[in-house]
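Deliverable D5.2: sample structural annotation.
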Amino acid sequence: MKSVRDPIVDLFAQASTCPRLAVLLVLVLAVAAQAGQSSQQLRIAAFGSVVEIVVRSAPQAQVEAAARIIDREFQAMHRRWHAWEPGPLVEVNQAIARGERTIAVPDDIAALIAESRQLYQASEGLFNPAIGGLLELWGFQSSVMPEGPLPSKAQIRRWLEQSPSMTDLRLTGNVLVSRNPAVQLDFGAYAKGVAVDRAIDILREHGIGHALVNAGGDVRVIGDAGGRVWQIGVRHPEGNRGSILGTIQAADGEAVFTSGNYERFRSDGERRYTHILDPRTGWPVERVTSVTVVGPRGSSADAAATALVVAGVDDWPRIARRMGIDKVLLVDDAGRVWMTPRMAERVSFRRPPDAVELRTPGLSR
């Protein structure tokens, strides 16, 4: 028997407990301490991290059936949507690069393209899954920390001149047409949100009404945590892996997603370059350390968190409003916290930040 410390959920400590390539599905019966109700905890290795599922007040057989389907679908998503290992997405990218006039795409990838194109437009191009070539140029299309020389200014300039974007693509049913061979799709800033949404759908289809899905720190919940709202812990971007900035209340159906510069980066010995790239400049973003958003779905929250990091300290409120996000918490490189009034109603800090500024979505500086 293992006690569950919910409703506060540590979102990131789990990632170090599971080998990267292992596929684990461990069912642990637990007791929800705050309500005395039975809870079950599952862990699956997928998308390069540990996916944790906590289910409350549901028969074990239903939980096990849902977990098998989630595990199977997550492994398939990882293989099919991988941007540089052989699979359907790589085949689509190769066809685009060859300049093929029409490209047949599978249903799942067509759905990714269709929704991400809408999110691209809402974010004014700051969320841009067409920049796989730029990510490769910087060495971030790799499962290991990038090494070697940084891309030259000339290489980045050539990429900018090609200006690949989601508007270069036209999708009719399952037929894709690209007008720009430089488009290389990489859904790394979005696919995890889609997967979390699918896991929630599967849980609901199996009659499960109270659960949390945590994919390496990105979370969506349904129901409640034993008569109380879920409390989602957010990592302190300047702290150790186990350091918590605070907790955010998440209501039924909501997603809490974070994008930050502290997990994946490269260094030239003097400066750290984050994997979050600005498609307008071709360079890693600066000044913003992390952005956490609360939204109605994982897919849109995932994309919005990335777009707001790119938008930066000055413009994030305007982009948040365009994307329909009213709960945002941003930490800049000086440690200052910026957030919306709606987020301020949800967050409890472990230690009061040195400086906090409230900004209303739509009102940029």
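Annotation notes: The chain has two domains: 2-74+194-358, 88-178. DSSP finds eight helices and 20 strands in the chain.
The annotation will be released with the project's public dataset once the embargo ends.
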